[in-house]
């Protein structure tokens, strides 16, 4: 059951319909592999260019570009702007960078939708990018302070500068500082949070490992069957995504826990690997898309960004988000035909746990006045592989989910797709797409 | 004549002299220098209020682009140039004699005489505009900087940097100019005048010291090289080596420049040094080499305009079919010039190869800092990679203004390609074919719109070969030909229009050349002798090396194809089985690691002739005629040159200028000889005809000079007046 389409969406009633016209990604690849020599901005630029190549869109028509990213290269703080200029899009097209941990390109796409609904734009490219082949590794704070004070110290001559630099400096201060993988506020690594929640909702190692093997096999099959042709754009002539491995339960179950030792559930196999990648979605107002002769893939109907207590419920945001979207559209879990769920590092566990939470009566009683969000039909979830196998470049995954869910709606002739994803800091996102009938 | 208008003088006593010649570009013509002299003697010299002078251009994008070459060309007896140059130098000396600060404010091109003018000043300010470049390019015209440039430059920037500038003629951009001390301040074009005046005021007040204060401290390394005897001797040795390597020693100008600088370093009086310089200049101006190079320069300028009228619309998007070496090269030069390029190949792997070639070339430029990262990104973005599986290629081709096909040479394939394309390209779209072997008219038969079909024959490797043959067939519209010329020119190519005949112009001339090489090999000329003789004639590479570079199979194919064409006796006399057998052995040239030469896979510069190939060449000899270097040169060059004249006779090319430029840019025909036609003029056409007749008697009718050559010899006329 859902409300009539004319009132679907936000409270804006007569708001313009927003459609997903197309989307692409550069092959997602393991850290320090094919993109080893590129900066994130290069990857993003290539994805924008690839989207223009695929859609034959005249770049001069673009109103706005927004790119999500997580780990920032300080040289390209507004990476969206640099990538836009580098992609041959007219210099007069504005662009901004947006960051919201692992749902950065989700927020980029939803920001695009909001701009279109508000009548501020008709054609927006929204995407995301992440590289782990180059991260800002810094001097320690102590050394940074010394270096910043150096010009002043130099006035006392080289000896003065030397004494300024070495005074009170310990050998340990010279150690480089890599970007933290622990949350700034909670100090917790996501693998640990996830492990804690898997205990809470009773997700076993066995279940997680099974999901891992399935994910790789789904992804491998989707590639082999050509599902991703035209969706993954070639880099140096290849569309291979090198994180996908054919694996067996036997092999996967042998791995030792990676985070909580010795009896934790999360391993190198059932957590997603560090991934480089970029993606881009072409979002338009419905009338503009039709005017330009495009055949949109889906409507973006509703979305929610929620936050929950990161100390206790770090990965449960999507459950809250999904409930909110479903409720707002008057839909039930049964109305959803396509699920694209993107948890974080520990893909299998979180999705399983989230599924459990969605189907937990106790959880529902406590949070949703007793109405369960409902059980996700696993046969409809991530059937073309997920972040666990394809990889999860933090900033770029959201756009991949939107593209893949939209394409699945068309191919599987389903009406609604539910996207759900969580992000560091207790954030969560859910989004509902509706198939576009051409 | 009315006195020149008085220049604006600021309250602080800075006179602003705005250089404003009659044309869009300021050049130092006889008239321009006379006007400058008048201005100086009537307005500046006697005016006590003037305490400093700023020279600045009234033009939007140039300071002074150089001396007026036409003026120099038009003086028949070059000795007459001596007093004229002296007059110019006297003007600069008079400027200096007033002993007030002189400041040059440079925006845009500041070349040749223009830079020499700036060098006479005490201080130089230049703008950071992309149009600003400084150079002394006289060497490219076989001349030297004659207004004191050879003396003033090294004192400012050091001998090494000065020699580099004067011997290569290269452009110096603002940042580099500042770094090397060529200019004192770089600023925004909008602030140029303000900065120049401020500098002049500081020079008046003494806040900034007047020369000979060195403005830039020499590094100890440069001091060791330039100012110590052992360093100097090593330096000149290196410079000489570089000149020999780049010119094979056949151009007199670099050596004259070296002489001038060495003479200057001896430290005689400035007057003597300047006299020495201008005497050398006049000597150079009288050489055939200089006349030839000026001829090429003029020819290039003339060929930028063509007679096909305006194209119907501006070309914005070019589709290139085939991402092989040719297609990728064409895509590269198009994307660099801002065209959107739809680069299409059969599959993603083909495209990836093409992109690898293009991006590799741009990466090199990025590394050498001749291309910025942003320009690199923009170029990259201009290339839209498409293959048969790309969902959008048909839609993309709907916006193409021109298609350039570089697919395999097969008439049926080309017809299929045209047919397929015409389903998607708009009606106005020009269809250009990069064939080298198939008549354009035959290709046009496969088109719904034959009037849009034109030949664009590029030379490989496209990014570095400067020539493009444009071949309209009988039914090609002028608009299509004009579009092809416009695109080619914008791609940085010099375009010549050629009639639709087998081999067009350049390959047609190369046909008899290749046959003769095989004839000479048969008559006992060793491979080494063949290469050495032609190098000494002034070709950039010998014929054996050339065949290896283009590929023995390709050379063999061209020769075979032309033997079967309409050239009759002119393709006889040799035996191209020399190449055919090599193809059978897999000796395909450099690309195979083995051609006439054996290439070292580790060191691309190293090549040797193996015993096997030596034996092969020896077995090929039928009769050792004891050929000399002169025999080799005469026999090869005459076949080549005769064919060029034959092309003019048959109106395959429009003029001797086209013919000269075509062979110089297409084959590297000794530039200092000015191309085949200028070479004939210099040699004496009658003498050349006699020489060819002699070979015709001994070697056969393939050496018989063509009718036009005989007519020219009889009438005593020259191809170039």
If you had to describe this structure to a student in words, what would you say it looks like?
The complex is a heterodimer of chains A (438) and B (721). Chain A has helices at 40-55, 79-86, 104-117, 141-148, 150-154, 157-166, 190-201, 205-224, 249-254, 286-291, 317-329, 347-358, 361-367, 387-390, 397-412; strands spanning 18-25, 29-30, 64-68, 95-98, 123-130, 275-285, 298-307, 336-342, 416-423, 427-435. By secondary structure, chain A is an alpha/beta fold. Chain A folds into 2 domains: 3-135 and 277-291, Peroxisomal Thiolase, Chain A, domain 1 (3-Layer(aba) Sandwich), CATH 3.40.47.10; 190-228 and 300-433, Peroxisomal Thiolase, Chain A, domain 1 (3-Layer(aba) Sandwich). In chain B, helix 4 (113-120) packs across helix 5 and helix 30 (685-699) crosses helix 31 (707-715). In chain B, a hairpin with an 8-residue loop joins strand 15 and strand 16 (467-472). Chain B is built from 31 helices and 19 strands. The two termini of chain B are 34 Å apart. Chain B is globular and about 80 Å long. With 721 residues, chain B is an alpha/beta fold. In chain B, 51% of the residues lie in helices and 11% in strands. Chains A and B meet through helix 1 of A and helix 15, helix 16 and strand 12 of B. Chain B: Residues 503-599, 632-717 form the 3-hydroxyacyl-CoA dehydrogenase C-terminal domain. Chain B: Its EC number is 4.2.1.17.
Question: How are the SSEs placed, and which strands pair?
Answer:
The complex is a heterodimer of chains A (438) and B (721).
Chain A (H helix, E strand, L loop, with lengths): L17 E8 L3 E2 L9 H16 L8 E5 L10 H8 L8 E4 L5 H14 L5 E8 L10 H8 L1 H5 L2 H10 L23 H12 L3 H20 L24 H6 L20 E11 H6 L6 E10 L9 H13 L6 E7 L4 H12 L2 H7 L19 H4 L6 H16 L3 E8 L3 E9 L3
Parallel strand pairs in A: 3-4, 3-5, 8-9
Antiparallel strand pairs in A: 1-6, 1-7, 2-6, 5-6, 7-10, 9-10
Helix pairs in contact in A: 1-2, 3-15, 7-12, 8-12
Chain B lengths: L7 E2 L4 E6 L10 H15 L7 E6 L4 E3 L4 H6 L6 H17 L4 E5 L2 E3 L1 H8 L2 E5 L5 E3 L13 H9 L1 H10 L5 H7 L4 E3 L4 H14 L14 H8 L1 H19 L5 H13 L4 H16 L2 H16 L13 E5 L3 H12 L3 E6 L2 H20 L5 H10 E5 L5 H5 L4 E4 L5 H12 L7 E4 L6 H5 L8 E6 L8 E6 L5 H13 L3 E4 L8 H17 L4 H11 L5 H8 L1 H12 L13 H9 L12 E2 L7 E2 L2 H10 L8 H21 L6 H12 L8 H8 L1 H15 L7 H9 L6
Parallel strand pairs in B: 2-3, 3-5, 4-6, 5-7, 6-8, 7-9, 10-11, 10-13, 11-12, 13-14, 14-15, 16-17
Antiparallel strand pairs in B: 1-2, 15-16, 18-19
Helix pairs in contact in B: 1-3, 3-12, 4-5, 5-6, 6-11, 9-10, 11-12, 13-28, 14-15, 21-24, 21-27, 22-27, 23-24, 24-25, 30-31
């Amino acid at each position: 059951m859902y409300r009539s389409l004319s009132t679907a969406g936000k409270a804006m009633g007569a708001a313009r319909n927003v459609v997903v016209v197309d989307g692409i990604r550069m092959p997602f690849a393991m850290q320090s592999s094919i993109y080893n020599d590129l900066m994130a901005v290069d990857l993003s630029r290539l994805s924008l260019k690839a989207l223009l190549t695929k859609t034959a869109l005249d770049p001069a028509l673009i109103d706005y570009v927004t790119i999500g990213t997580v780990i920032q290269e300080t040289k390209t703080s507004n990476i969206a702007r640099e990538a836009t200029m580098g992609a041959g899009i007219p210099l007069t097209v504005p662009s901004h960078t947006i960051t919201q941990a692992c749902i950065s390109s989700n927020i980029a796409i939803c920001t695009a939708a909001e701009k279109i609904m508000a009548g501020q734009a008709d054609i927006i490219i929204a995407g995301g990018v992440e590289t782990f082949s180059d991260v800002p590794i810094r001097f320690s704070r102590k050394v940074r302070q010394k270096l910043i004070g150096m010009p002043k110290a130099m006035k006392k001559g080289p000896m003065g500068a030397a004494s300024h630099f070495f005074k009170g400096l310990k050998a340990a201060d010279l150690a480089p500082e890599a970007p933290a993988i622990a949350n700034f506020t909670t100090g917790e690594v996501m693998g640990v949070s996830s492990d804690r929640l898997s205990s809470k909702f009773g997700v076993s190692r066995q279940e997680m490992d099974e999901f891992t093997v399935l994910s790789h096999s789904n992804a491998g099959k989707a590639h082999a069957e050509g599902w991703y042709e035209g969706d993954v754009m070639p880099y140096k002539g290849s569309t291979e995504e090198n994180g996908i491995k054919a694996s067996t339960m036997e092999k996967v179950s042998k791995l030792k826990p990676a985070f909580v030792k010795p009896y934790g559930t999360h391993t190198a196999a059932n957590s997603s690997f560090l991934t480089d990648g970029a993606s881009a979605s072409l979002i338009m107002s419905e009338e503009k898309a039709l005017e330009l002769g495009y055949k949109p893939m889906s409507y973006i109907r509703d979305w929610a960004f929620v936050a929950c207590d990161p100390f206790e419920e770090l990965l449960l945001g999507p459950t809250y988000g999904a409930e909110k979207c479903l409720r707002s559209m008057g839909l039930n879990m049964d109305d959803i035909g396509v699920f694209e769920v993107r948890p974080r590092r520990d893909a299998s566990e979180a999705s399983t746990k989230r599924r459990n939470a969605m189907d937990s009566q106790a959880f529902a009683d406590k949070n949703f006045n007793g109405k369960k969000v409902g059980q996700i039909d696993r046969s409809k979830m991530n059937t073309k592989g997920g972040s666990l196998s394809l990889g999860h470049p933090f900033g770029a995954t959201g756009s991949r989910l939107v593209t893949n869910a939209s394409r699945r709606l068309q191919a599987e002739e389903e009406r609604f797709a539910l996207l759900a994803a969580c992000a560091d800091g207790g954030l969560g996102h859910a989004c509902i797409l509706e198939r576009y009938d051409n | 004549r009315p006195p020149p208008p008085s220049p604006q003088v600021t309250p602080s006593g800075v006179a602003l002299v705005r250089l404003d010649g009659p044309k869009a570009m300021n050049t130092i013509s006889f008239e321009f220098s006379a006007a400058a002299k008048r201005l100086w003697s009537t307005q500046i010299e006697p005016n006590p209020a003037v305490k400093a002078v700023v020279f600045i251009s009234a033009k939007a994008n140039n300071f002074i682009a150089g001396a007026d070459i036409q003026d120099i060309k038009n003086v028949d007896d070059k000795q007459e140039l001596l007093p004229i140059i002296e007059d110019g130098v006297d003007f600069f000396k008079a400027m200096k004699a007033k002993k007030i600060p002189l400041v040059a404010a440079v925006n845009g091109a500041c070349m040749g005489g223009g830079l020499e003018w700036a060098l006479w000043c005490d201080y130089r300010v230049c703008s950071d505009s992309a149009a600003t470049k400084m150079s002394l390019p006289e060497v490219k015209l076989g001349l030297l900087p004659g207004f004191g440039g050879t003396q003033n430059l090294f004192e400012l920037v050091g001998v090494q940097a000065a020699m580099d500038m004067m011997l290569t003629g290269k452009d110096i951009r603002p940042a580099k100019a500042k770094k090397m001390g060529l200019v004192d301040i770089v600023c925004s074009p909008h602030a140029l005048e303000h900065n120049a005046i401020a500098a002049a005021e500081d020079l008046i007040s003494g806040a900034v010291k007047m020369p000979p204060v060195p403005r830039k401290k020499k590094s100890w390394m440069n001091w060791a090289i330039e100012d110590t005897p052992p360093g100097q001797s090593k330096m000149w040795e290196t410079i000489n080596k570089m000149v020999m390597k780049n010119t094979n020693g056949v151009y007199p100008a670099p050596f004259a420049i070296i002489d001038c600088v060495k003479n200057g370093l001896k430290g005689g009086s400035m007057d003597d040094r300047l006299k020495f310089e201008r005497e050398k200049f006049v000597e150079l101006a009288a050489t055939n080499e200089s006349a030839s190079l000026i001829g090429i320069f003029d020819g290039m300028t003339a060929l930028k305009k063509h007679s096909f009228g305006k194209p119907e619309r501006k070309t914005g998007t070019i589709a290139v079919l085939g991402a092989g070496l040719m297609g990728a090269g064409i895509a590269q030069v198009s994307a660099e010039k801002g065209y959107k390029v739809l680069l299409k190949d059969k599959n993603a792997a083909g495209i990836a190869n093409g992109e690898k070639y293009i991006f590799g070339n741009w990466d090199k430029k990025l590394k050498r800092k001749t291309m910025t990262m942003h320009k690199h990104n923009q170029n990259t973005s201009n290339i839209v990679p498409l293959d048969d599986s790309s969902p959008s290629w048909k839609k993309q081709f709907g916006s193409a203004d021109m298609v350039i096909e570089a697919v395999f040479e097969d008439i049926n394939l080309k017809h299929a390609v045209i047919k397929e394309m015409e389903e998607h390209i708009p009606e106005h779209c020009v269809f250009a074919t990069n064939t080298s072997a198939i008549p354009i008219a035959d290709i046009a038969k496969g088109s719904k719109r034959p009037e849009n079909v034109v030949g664009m024959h590029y030379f490989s490797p496209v990014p570095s070969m400067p020539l493009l043959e444009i071949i309209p067939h009988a039914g090609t519209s002028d608009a299509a030909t004009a579009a092809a010329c416009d695109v080619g020119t914008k791609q940085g190519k010099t375009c010549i229009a050629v009639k639709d005949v087998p081999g067009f112009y350049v390959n047609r001339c190369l046909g008899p050349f290749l046959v003769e090489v095989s004839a000479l090999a048969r008559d006992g000329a060793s491979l080494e002798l063949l290469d050495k003789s032609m190098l000494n004639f002034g070709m950039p590479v010998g014929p054996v090396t050339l065949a290896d570079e283009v590929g023995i199979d390709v050379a063999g194919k061209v020769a075979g194809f032309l033997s079967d064409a309409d050239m009759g006796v002119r393709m006889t006399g040799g035996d191209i089985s020399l190449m055919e057998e090599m193809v059978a052995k897999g000796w395909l040239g450099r690309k195979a690691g083995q051609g006439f030469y054996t290439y070292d896979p580790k060191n691309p510069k190293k090549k040797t002739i193996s015993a096997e190939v030596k034996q092969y060449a020896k077995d090929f000899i039928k009769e050792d005629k004891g050929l000399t270097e002169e025999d080799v040169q005469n026999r090869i060059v005459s076949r080549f040159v005769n064919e060029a004249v034959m092309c003019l006779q048959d109106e395959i090319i429009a003029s001797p200028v086209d013919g000269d430029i075509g062979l110089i840019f297409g084959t590297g025909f000794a530039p200092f000889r000015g191309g085949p036609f200028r070479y004939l003029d210099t040699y004496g056409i009658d003498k050349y005809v006699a020489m060819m007749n002699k070979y015709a008697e001994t070697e056969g009718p393939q050496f018989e000079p063509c009718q036009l050559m005989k007519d020219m010899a009889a009438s005593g006329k020259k191809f170039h007046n």
